[in-house]
Write a structure and sequence with these properties.
364 residues; alpha+beta; Chorismate synthase, AroC fold; 5-stranded antiparallel sheet; 8 helices; globular
Length: 364
């Protein structure tokens, strides 16, 4: 189904940008996990709008309520339902968009597919749909941390033409990431990024950027060969996030400029097992985790909805000038960090359960 993700840990999101609420249903969460709303709220707070002058002016507290699947603070193993109300709704801001498809937005394609669409704020193509992903992914993160000690950290490594310096993926944490409102741990670069975003906002324009993510503590052996490779699952997850335009893992496209003698990751002894001296593979070989840190990058385009007048056409093909109203992020990457983290967690918890099932069947 188009609104569901995962195999054993399966998530279905629901809701549109300006309906009464958005949320998710999680099926496959193991029983006995300590879980209350505050465990989920932390990541939702990092995703919510109105955090600073770098984001949309829409004011939403995004407070989550667990509707089902827990009792006395413990999961029951039954579906977990979660709801976040939409409070600051202004569907009137989108009156013009009922007849004019916004350039590079999903208005035209949704209309072509369904013959009808939610014209207020983009409906399901709005970034508010990601609330359900983040809520579900926060549960996945708690499972991964409790059972495997896995840490997932994403940060802004580029905004427009500004790029952060090298970041030590072995020690970077969310405290360092959240030290600046743009979520770039290189504070000098963060200052330049903030200035660039404010300039774009003042000019009613938008900017793209890049998020880098590291997943530490993933054991060797997770992921499936051939069609369900772990990097393919991660790419699927990341490219399903609104506004994404690219995914690369490990050396990525830069690896194409290297020779194999430099790109290969030689094995070394590490404790009672093996590790690699370098990590151009990004922690995955043959579609299966090798025990090294998994790291990847996700490219986000400039938000399609801008306030500048644009010459386009309406649904009847008549030339019109559109200056979009509403409240929109001039750059989505600062708020996208928790979305990338939680989508990575959804992939990893699913493959962890698949590996546990395989191990259980293989045991004598």
């Amino acid at each position: 189904m188009s609104s569901s993700f995962g195999t054993l840990f399966r998530v279905t999101t629901f809701g549109e940008s300006h309906c009464r609420g958005v949320g998710a249903i999680v099926d496959g969460c193991p029983p006995g996990l300590a879980l209350v709303e505050n465990d989920i709220q932390t990541q939702l707070d990092r995703r919510r709008p109105g955090q600073s002058d770098l984001t949309t002016d829409r004011q939403e507290s995004d407070r989550v309520t667990i509707l089902s699947g827990t009792e006395k603070g413990l999961t029951l193993g039954t579906p977990i339902g979660m709801l976040v109300p939409n409070k600051d709704q202004r569907p009137g801001d989108y009156k013009e968009m009922s007849t004019i498809p916004r350039p590079s937005h999903a208005d035209f394609t949704y209309q072509a597919k369904y013959g009808i669409r939610a014209s207020s704020g983009g409906g399901r193509s709005s970034a508010r749909e990601t609330i359900g992903r983040v809520a579900a992914g926060a549960i996945a993160e708690k499972i991964l941390q409790a059972h495997h000690g896995i840490e997932i950290v994403a940060w802004v490594s580029a905004v427009g033409t500004e790029t952060a310096g090298a970041i030590d993926t072995a020690v970077i944490d969310r405290v360092a990431v959240d030290a600046s409102p743009v979520r770039c741990p290189d504070l000098a670069a963060a200052g330049r990024m903030q200035a660039l975003i404010r300039q774009a906002k003042d000019e009613k324009d938008s900017l793209g950027g890049i998020l880098t993510c590291v997943c530490r503590g993933v054991p060797a052996g997770w992921g499936e060969p051939v069609f369900d490779k772990l990097e393919a699952k991660l790419a699927h997850a990341m490219l399903s996030i609104p506004a994404t335009k690219g995914f690369e893992i490990g050396s990525g496209f830069a690896g194409t400029r290297m020779r194999g003698s430099r790109h290969n990751d030689p094995f070394v002894g590490r404790g009672e097992g093996l590790g690699t001296r370098t990590n151009n593979s990004g922690g995955i070989q043959g579609g299966i985790s090798n025990g090294e840190a998994i790291y990847f990058r996700v490219a986000f385009k400039p938000p399609a909805t801008i306030g500048q007048p644009q010459e386009t056409v309406d649904f009847d093909g008549k030339t019109v000038t559109l200056a979009a109203k509403g409240r929109h992020d001039p750059c989505v990457v600062p708020r996208a960090a928790p979305i990338v983290e939680t989508m990575a967690a959804l992939v990893l918890v699913d493959v962890s359960l698949q590996q546990a099932a395989r191990a259980a069947v293989a045991s004598p």
